[in-house]
Fold each of these.
Amino acid sequence: MAEERRRGCLIIIGGHEDRDPRGHRVILKEVAKHVRGGKLVLATVASHQPEGYFDEYEKAFADLDVGELVELYFEDRCEAGDRDKLQVLDDAAGIFFSGGDQLRITSQIGDTGIEAKVRSVYERGGVVAGTSAGASVMSDTMLVKGTSKETHRIGDLHMAPGLGLIRNVIIDQHFAERGRFGRLLGAVAHNPRVLGIGIDEDTAAIVADDHLRVIGDGAVYVVDGTGVSYSNVAEAKCDITLSMHDVKVHVLAEGDSFDLRERRPRSA
Amino acid sequence: MAEERRRGCLIIIGGHEDRDPRGHRVILKEVAKHVRGGKLVLATVASHQPEGYFDEYEKAFADLDVGELVELYFEDRCEAGDRDKLQVLDDAAGIFFSGGDQLRITSQIGDTGIEAKVRSVYERGGVVAGTSAGASVMSDTMLVKGTSKETHRIGDLHMAPGLGLIRNVIIDQHFAERGRFGRLLGAVAHNPRVLGIGIDEDTAAIVADDHLRVIGDGAVYVVDGTGVSYSNVAEAKCDITLSMHDVKVHVLAEGDSFDLRERRPRSA
């Protein structure tokens, strides 16, 4: 079994997952299921002021199958080499990146011992979950900034190298709620090799072995640029409006799945 | 020429078109171009309180090639048969529906002499323009209500018969700005025979002879459901999230055009 599956599982959450101890907590229950009574590390490093985050998640996970919930936070990059910080991850069954700013995560832990440990949790079959900013960082190239609620302007999008736990996709979160369709289309236009994955709030894409499955209240949008016949994204002027023909879109709801290699959806 | 082209032109505007007398007024200039010094009727019937609308448009059109701008407004449906109201449209080169509530337009003028006159302006080669609610009413079936900024829930969408000046499409406006992608996808899921057309603010689709052309600042989104391989829209529960696979989307910017019969885009 361990040899068959060299990697673990990603739980990529669109933000605002239900954390009410009396709520449905569909997504946190899924996280707990993968942790199977082991240790879950809550990385609050995306936030400048993570006060309260840990308490909230501790209450939310209290009656779920998480053996131990431990916070990982540091103010500065230099702390990412601290022995006690690193040790926290040694026996972790999973890691959960809470929300904030995706650049905080990558600039603080990129190319540090912490990043190596996160990768090793994943490679030995653990779960890496992330919500909001914690979702965006999972890909090779991540979306950092771009206007919501308007059609993409060429030159408006900011991207940066992410943690690279999943390749050939680019992730956006709070998707329908913040009207981010335009910017995800814009990101895919830059290089249709990447599949755009837009995740609604309280919704998650669970990825294992090139297979994506949807849980939660909203939808996961998959933007496939393979068949794009024209786009103006390489034009010189930054403020012109995106034009892009023949994009394929899938709207996936709970139970739907998607084969990331074949780029094909399957219904519930 | 008159025999070759039995119908006029539609200018379908996504709302908030530039009306500043010192602004670019790309869309109003296009309207004026089609009016060619003739009479333009501003129908403010979509609004309960159209005070100020006429003044604003009068200022905006003042230095453009509109010979005469006349307001058409009535409070109640019974007035839609008034002789003086009807006469206003007799020699009109164009009609412009301002914004408000699309149901005000259809419930007030549907199946009245006014509606017949609007149709005859169009059929004798005139221009029918409409912004926001005035855009939505142009299709056979129009979108009336549906939540913005979230993924479509089955049962959440309200549609009604429109003026039917353009067939086999359904129009949405304030499109990227109000995050209406989800609801337009939902509308197309209901019957992929209709092409979804989502128009951004200060942007217009000019339709003549099954040919659509884009002008303005934002984009026109075309949602083509022809290839949809699966959707759950016919399922019984109203509050479940839309699932819909293999939708084709085109993002069209100024200068791009679209062949409505062949359903094919063409770049600028």
Note: Chain A is about 20% helix and 30% strand.
Amino acid sequence: MLIIDCHGHYTTAPAAHQKFREQQLAWLEDPALPTPRPAQISDDAIRESIETNQLRLQQARGADLTLFSPRASAMGHHQGNEAVSSAWARACNDLIKRVVDLYPENFVGVCQLPQSPGVPVAHSVGELERCVRELGFVGCNLNPDPSGGHWNSPPLIDRHWYPFYEKMVELDVPAMVHVSASCNANFHATGAHYINADTTAFMQFIEGDLFRDFPTLRFIIPHGGGAVPYHWGRYRGLADMLKRPPLATHLMRNVYFDTCVYHQPGIDLLARVIDLDNILFGSEMLGAVRGVDPQTGQYFDDTKRYIDALPLVAADRRRIYELNARRVYPRLDALLRARGL
Amino acid sequence: MLIIDCHGHYTTAPAAHQKFREQQLAWLEDPALPTPRPAQISDDAIRESIETNQLRLQQARGADLTLFSPRASAMGHHQGNEAVSSAWARACNDLIKRVVDLYPENFVGVCQLPQSPGVPVAHSVGELERCVRELGFVGCNLNPDPSGGHWNSPPLIDRHWYPFYEKMVELDVPAMVHVSASCNANFHATGAHYINADTTAFMQFIEGDLFRDFPTLRFIIPHGGGAVPYHWGRYRGLADMLKRPPLATHLMRNVYFDTCVYHQPGIDLLARVIDLDNILFGSEMLGAVRGVDPQTGQYFDDTKRYIDALPLVAADRRRIYELNARRVYPRLDALLRARGL
């Protein structure tokens, strides 16, 4: 059995990369400054940032492979404009590609998109295509709220998003629904904005008929699906009140939850309520929550421990750890098969 | 043991009441229209609306008493202006008072506030005081987002809210944190906006030091605390990362969750994770979700069944059903004691 972590971020990129971002934002304020260019980063700097962090923890915790994307909170789609977002996304994705090239057995790329408030998401199609076709990435992170907490884009079931979905279907890649930082003081990024976005996206999917239009479109809703599994009765009841089909057929052939839920009772609920075929192992490492749980003496985000503690037969555990990810990310499966895995 | 439902709404008010609201909104568009006045509603109309709905279900399901407030989704703080919100809140609260006078053993009043976007919440102090001192209400519903989904008010830990909190403390009444309808297409009201607001409020309380400033201030976060119990590990970990005290002392002496979680696994998680002293029985009846769960053959919002199915000793069950509510709502306790209960 392979253990595939579907949710990892390069939160530890070398400082020069973040400096490029700061130069970008400074340049926006003062266009007389020189046009910033992506940082020159050595392989050694990348190795150090990975080997002391994500790779070390991946190995210490017993995972085999991480679907690796740029730091979500730093996507910052609400900052700057389309050109700035585009250059930043490209630099972030290129850096992921370098990590993947250095550690091809441990990391597979998932891309950031050059979204920008008020800009059609269709403009992100090019970067998705580049990342998938040229860089070999297997998925993307799609931000349902590029405004960073003002929620002024159309819902995910709106036709606004369809050109992007068409490309996802054509490339056969799923999207993780993932917001970035919050610039709204009401929403703490990882404590409210992330979880709210997960809950919001799921309810939007209930309201619409997106998967009638795109039967093969697939989304991963991270952070254990936000509030959804805990309120599964509410969502089943709301689907009924809204005259939608049962959730199992209306959206659960297309929507998946990861396991970024940082305590045993939450994971127990997830596995009790949600069909195991819809659960993908993930850790969000590193990480929204980096500390040690004083109740267990273990890291909060060592989610593998919670899965291992579930009373599952081996075949079921393998669905969560490996088989669901290979089904939801067919390009990952192809890549693994090419390696004889 | 008394069974106290801390979360009931007058969602079935006679049509004339809603017509007054429509006249209000029409008058806003065309001030040449006559100034609308609250509807004349007969006792019989109120009796019918209650006896066929909330009272019938309260009795059928075996509860004794409901903390009863105006329909939350109809508070509509985002519509109109301060004067309109004020007249509407007053009419809604007066109607609750009439229900309470007709069925004093079955309903106790909780008030709507005349909030309005951009208007200091201090302006709601008068209506709170009227409802508590003159009408005998025991709590209020406080809307953290009077904009209806644009979230442009300061967070609940901001000093903006302090004058209102001072009055709550003086009157010794708690607030349920409860948004109204959503005018943001991203947020389905009962499926996303409500749950997001619950999660958001809790994270705001973690970020601040509100209960150091107001040690006796109390909030009920409805809908089982939004996403919070499911992500309890995340919140414990975030409090630690933010250098806050442990949740138990930082806010769980002041924050309570109701049981409006519409399936057994959700209630099981709630009772497993959250101290039983912080859980108040509630049904949200009637009702965000009005249908029958095909998996159980019972109504989704018959939350008493889920509590009854918890493996609790009688003393613990009584905390959830009665004692916590009497502690969190001292004016309810006083009222019951005066009746020898």
Note: The beta strands of chain A are 4-10, 65-70, 107-111, 139-142, 175-177, 219-221, 255-258, 279-280, 292-293, 298-299.
